[in-house]
Write a structure and sequence with these properties.
The complex is a heterodimer of chains A (about 190) and B (about 300). Chain A has about 190 residues and is mainly α. Chain A is built from 9 helices and 2 strands. The chains are: A mainly alpha (about 190), B mainly alpha (about 300). The structure holds zinc ion (ZN).
Chain lengths: ~190, ~300
């Protein structure tokens, strides 16, 4: 990986592309999970990797490349989450050749299709889960996402978000408490 | 350990973020305390519920993102240290790119003008260029064909030098069409997309039809394949076209292409299409394509599987 980064730093486009491909799926998954919108996730992807492209020279190997990349990605996502808190949630409806569809329903229907007995349960609980997640502050949401869904260690998460492991622990604790309060008897 | 302090540690314990000695003490407490054990159970149940919410990334999104990025970078996203490039640097870069076997796009994707560049132009020089409008003496381009170092430390480089010429004429013009057919085989995918797009309204000509089929079956760029499929729509009932489409459906690695092929195939019903779709349902790993296929089979009152 280090030699790939050095090659990309020297301007080797092929190496840069390999570097992107080694990390871009997890970046896209993170953005998609946090923002729940393919368009926003696409924007985050573009902005993040263009920043990487432009600033790769400033990467000094004093942390892992993954951590450095995630500093960029989490920053962009946090910005968007904060702006969202301010303005009203956009419509999730998109126009397609088959008429207007709700983006999120497509994904949900798909998983319902794969496992029908979950469908009813999903529909009820999903709303509660979404509102529970929306009640979190952007920072709590981010820590929770990185720990629960991306499986990163809190120490590493602290490093990415420019804070201490202790602060990340507190964030995770608050996030869990809030969600348990909202989900309560549901689970 | 008090129940209060345990409550605080439960999420961290669940995520394996406690020190070993803290973990031991917590487990000791859980063994002896029913209310805290219930708290632990609730933590697990909540995590399991949240696991099910995990959204998958739509399959086409990753490809779209990668294409965006490539276009932005090749379209000239600046790098901070990038020096101004002289002709010699550009030549060396072209050389390096050729050696690495990379296809660098010479025009940005989505460019509208069809420009005949390089070897493609050279092939047509002696063969009666379209007379419509011909601008003489353009820029000179070099394509490196071979590089051979010799024992004395010198290097022999063979390259074709070609002039850029610009021709224009109506898309239906016979000479323009010949250039378009050649352009549909160019290295540059942006040129291929434009050419196939212009050709696709003329699939009634046998030559154009063959070029479109060739693009659908062989072009490495999914955008070109999709344009070519578009052009084959009026021929969706043709048995030879359908035979090739059936092969493409089972072989193409791009879900958007497969979806469009399904559309084309089911627009004209024949006996073989049911078998082809049943075959695809069995091996299709993309949910959208599989659902589309299953729906098409249902619409034709055919069973989804052969089992
Ligand atoms: Zn207790």
């Amino acid at each position: 990986m280090d030699s790939l980064i050095r090659a990309a730093q020297r301007g080797d486009q092929d190496a840069f592309e390999q570097l992107v491909r080694a990390h871009d799926q997890s970046v896209l998954r993170l953005a998609m999970n946090l923002l729940r919108s393919p368009e926003d996730a696409r924007d985050v992807y573009q902005e993040a990797f263009l920043r990487v492209y432009r600033n790769l020279d400033s990467f000094r190997f004093d942390c892992s490349f993954h951590t450095w990349l995630y500093r960029i990605v989490t920053n962009i996502c946090l910005d968007r989450l904060r702006k969202r808190k301010v303005r009203k949630e956009e419509s999730a409806v998109v126009e397609t050749s088959d008429g207007p569809i709700d983006r999120m329903e497509v994904f949900e229907e798909e998983s319902a299709h794969a496992n029908p007995e979950r469908a009813v349960w999903n529909r009820e609980l999903n709303e509660r889960i979404e509102s529970a997640l929306q009640d979190l502050t952007p920072r709590e949401r981010m820590v929770f996402e990185l720990r629960h869904y991306q499986g990163l260690r809190l120490r590493n998460i602290g490093e990415m978000l420019g804070t201490t492991e202790e602060a990340a622990k507190n964030c995770l604790f608050r996030a869990t408490q809030k969600m348990r309060a909202v989900l309560g008897d549901c689970v | 350990m008090t129940c209060d302090s345990v409550a605080r540690l439960i999420p961290l314990y669940f995520y394996g973020e406690l020190m070993p000695e803290e973990e031991d003490r917590l487990e000791e407490h859980l063994h002896a305390c029913a209310p805290c054990t219930r708290e632990m159970e609730r933590q697990r149940a909540m995590a399991a519920a949240l696991d099910r919410r995990h959204t998958e990334v739509p399959p086409l999104l990753l490809g779209a993102c990668r294409a965006d990025l490539l276009a932005a970078i090749q379209g000239g996203a600046p790098r901070l240290f990038e020096p101004a490039k002289g002709p010699w640097t550009l030549f060396l870069e072209a050389l390096a790119a050729t050696l690495a076997g990379l296809n660098r796009y010479r025009t940005p994707v989505g460019a509208v003008a069809l420009v005949a560049v390089g070897f493609f132009a050279a092939r047509f020089t002696g063969a009666g260029l379209p007379a419509s409008s011909l601008s003489p003496a353009g820029e000179v381009f070099s394509t490196v064909r071979s590089v051979e170092p010799d024992s004395s430390g010198r290097v022999q480089i063979a390259f074709d030098e070609t002039r850029r010429r610009v021709v224009s004429g109506a898309a239906g013009d016979r000479d323009i069409q010949r250039l378009l057919l050649a352009a549909a085989r160019e290295d540059n995918p942006a040129v291929r997309v434009e050419s196939v797009d212009l050709l696709k309204s003329r699939a009634d000509s046998g030559e154009v039809r063959d070029a479109l089929l060739n693009a659908v079956a062989r072009d490495s760029n999914a955008g070109v394949r999709l344009k070519a499929l578009d052009g084959l729509k009026p021929l969706a009932g043709d048995s030879q076209v359908r035979k090739i489409l059936a092969q493409v459906l089972l072989a193409d690695d791009n879900p958007a292409v497969r979806m469009q092929v399904v559309d084309l195939l089911v627009s004209h019903r024949d006996d073989s299409v049911v078998g082809v779709l049943q075959n695809l349902v069995q091996k299709e790993d993309n949910n959208y394509v599989r659902l589309k296929c299953e729906k098409a089979l249902k619409d034709m009152n055919a069973s989804i599987g052969t089992f």
